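Trying the structure run again after the queue cleared.
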Amino acid sequence: MEELSVDLITSSRSILKGTVILLFILGWAFIAFANPLAAASAQFQMVLTGVGLQLLSLVTLALEQRAPVWSSRLAIGLLAAAVISASQGWSAPELMALLILPVGLAALLINLPAALTAACLLTLLLGAGTRLSWWEFRAVTFSVVSIWGEYLLLLVLLKPVMEFSAWTLDYYRQARTIIDKSRERKMELEQVLEDLVRANEQLTRLNTLAQGLRQIAEDARTAKEQFVANVSHELRTPLNMILGFSENILQAPESYGDRLSPALLSDLVVIHRNAQHLSHLIDDVLDLSQIEADQMALSKEWVDVTEVVQDAVIAVQPLYQSKGLFLHAEIQPGLPSLFCDCTRIREVLLNLLSNAGRFTEQGGVRVQVREDAGTGVLFSVTDTGPGISEENIQKLFQPFQQVDGSIRRRFGGTGLGLSISKRFVELHNGKIWIESKIGAGTTFHFRIPFEPAAQLMDRAGSSRWVSEDWEYLQRTRPSRAPLPVMVPRVIVLDAGGILKRFLTRYMSGTEIISASSLEEAESLYSESPAHALIINGSSLENELDRVNHSSVIPKDIPIFICSIANTQEEWSAQGVSDLLIKPISREALITALDRLGIQSGTVLIVDDEPDALQLFGRFLTSINREYSVLLARDGQEALEVIRERRPDVILLDLIMPNMNGFQFLTSRASDLHIRQIPVILISARDISGHPVVSNAIAITKSSGLSMHELLAVIQKISQMLSIGWPKDDRAPREESAG
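Done. C-alpha cells:
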C-alpha cells in the first residue's frame, strides 16, 4: 500500500511535469507560428501570449515541490488559456474542443470536484461569447458537449476507483494500527510469558528446597522420637533394679537376715508402688514414641471381636466391683471376624474402660459393640460420670492432657492413655470420637474397618536434596505477570437470607459465603480461611451460648452476632402473598400468579402511573388465559372498585397519592370481606432494602480477645456510634511489660 501511494504521487508529478512541458512548447508555438495574415497588433499579442506561457510554465514547475496543489491549479488554468488563445489567434474555433484537456487534467491532478469546477468555469467562459458566426457557434456547442461528456465519463470511471482507493487506504490504515497494537501486545505477552517462566522456575526451586527442608524436619522429628524411645529403654534397666529389689524385700524379708523394721517395710511399699507407676509411664511413653517414630509394628490377624471385648471386661471387673459400679457388655450376635492387632484393640478398650471406671462414682458403664453399616465394627463405651464440656474434649487426645489439674490429682493417671488409644485406632485406619454432656455422662466411640489397613509408605527412598544450580537472578524490569486480587472473605450464618442480601449489596469487594450451620461454617473455613463469621439469630444470648459451647468454631476467627428481623415475614403477616420489584418482566408476573394458583379470573391493578397500568394490563391480556383486568390509580379508588366487583388477586403499588399501598393494606386488614383477597406487591422500592434495626450486636472469638484487641474494638465502635467522639485513626498502643 505504501508503494502504491508512492506510485500515485510519482504519476501525479509526472503528469504535472508533462503538462508544464506541453505549455512551454505551446508558448514556443505561439511565438514561432504567429498568424501572418493577422494585423501587427494581433501578431504581437500572440508572441506576448507565448512568452507568458513559457514564463508561467517555469513558475508552475518551480511551485511543484513547495505548493503542489497551487502548481496543479496554475497548470490547469494555463492549459485552458492556451487552448482559447490558440483558437482565437489562429482563427480556428474547432481548437476549443481541446478544452476537454483541462477538465481531465483537473480530475487527474486534484479530484473530481475540481474537474466539475473546471467544467463549469469553461462552460461559463464559452457561453459568454457574443455575435458568434454559425461555424463558431457549432464549435462552441461541440466544445461544451465534449467538456460535460468527458466529465460524465470521468465520473462513471474514476469515482468508483477513487472510492475504492479511499476505502482501501482507510482499511489499510486501520490494519496498520491493529498490526502495531498486535505487535505491542505480542511483545507484552512475550514479556509476561517470560516472567511466568522465571516465576515457575523460582517456584520449582523453592518447592524443591521446601521438600528438602520438610524432609529434614521429618528426620529431626523421627530422631527425637527415636531418642525418646532409646531413653525409655535405658530407664527400664535401673527401674528394673528398683522394682526387683523392693519386691524381693517385701515378699522375702527373711532372706536379708534379721527382722526388718515395720517403718522400713512401709517405706519400701511406697517405693515399690511409685516404681510401678513410673514403669507404666515409661511403657506409655515408649508406645507413644514408637508410634510417632513410625516404629510401631502391628501384629494383625483375624480375631473374634467377642473374645477381645470379654477379655477387657474381665480385666477391669475388679475396679468396678471395688467401687460398686455395674459393667454391662452388649455385643451384637454374629459379628464377623476383624483383621486387627488383638493386643492393641484390647489395650484401647482397657484404657477406655479404666478411665470410665475411675471417673464414674455412681451407676456404671455400658459397652456396646455392633456392625457399622457393613463397613466395620463400632465400639461404644458409655459411662454415667460427670461428663466433659465441649471446650475440654479437644484436650483429651493430646499427650499429658486431662480435663483439668484437679481431676488429675483426684483420679490419677498420666494423660497418655487416650492419646495412645487414638494412635492405635488410626493405625488401623479407624476413627475415635467423643460424645459428652455435662451431668449426663460420656460416650467414647471408635470404629475399626473390616478391610486390612493399608501399608505405611516407605520413607527410606524419599528424596532429600537441594538444587545445586540454584542461583539468584536480579530482575531488570518490573514483572508483568498478573497479580491475584485478594478480597476479604466473610462466612454468613443466616437462616432467612436477609443478612446475606444486605452484605452482598452493600459490601462490594467482599466475598460473601453462606452457611446453614456451625459445622458447615467450619467446613467452609477449613477449605479457605475467612476473615469473619457473622451470625444472624433471633436471640443473642442463645447464639452466644451456642458459639461458646461449640467445638467446631475456628480459634482465631472473629464472630459477629446480631438479630435482624426478616421483613418478608412481616409482609406475610399483613397478608402480602408475593413481592415483585420493578422492572417486572412478563414471565415474573405469570410466575407469581401461578404460585397463587390463579390461572383465570379478575385481576385488580392499583398504580398511580398510567404507563404501569397499561403495561401490566397488556401483560395480562396478552396471556392465553381468561383474565379480566380492573384498574385503579390509588388505594381509595381500589377500595371502591373492590366493593363493586370482587377481584381474585390485587397487584398493588406502594407509593401512590391520596391513599398509598401501606394505608390500603391497613384498610384491607380491617375489612373481613376483602381480607382474604391475595395481594402481590409491585413496587419500585425494594422492601427488603428499608433500614433494618438490630437491637444489639455481640463480638466474640473462640481464642478470646487480648487487651489490645479489646481496646481497638471499643475505640472503633465508639468512633462510629458515639456522638462527638474524635474521628481519628489512632489505635491503642500495647503497653510494654515492666
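The chain has four domains: 2-170, 300-449, 487-576+689-704, 583-683. Worth checking whether this holds up in the mutant runs.
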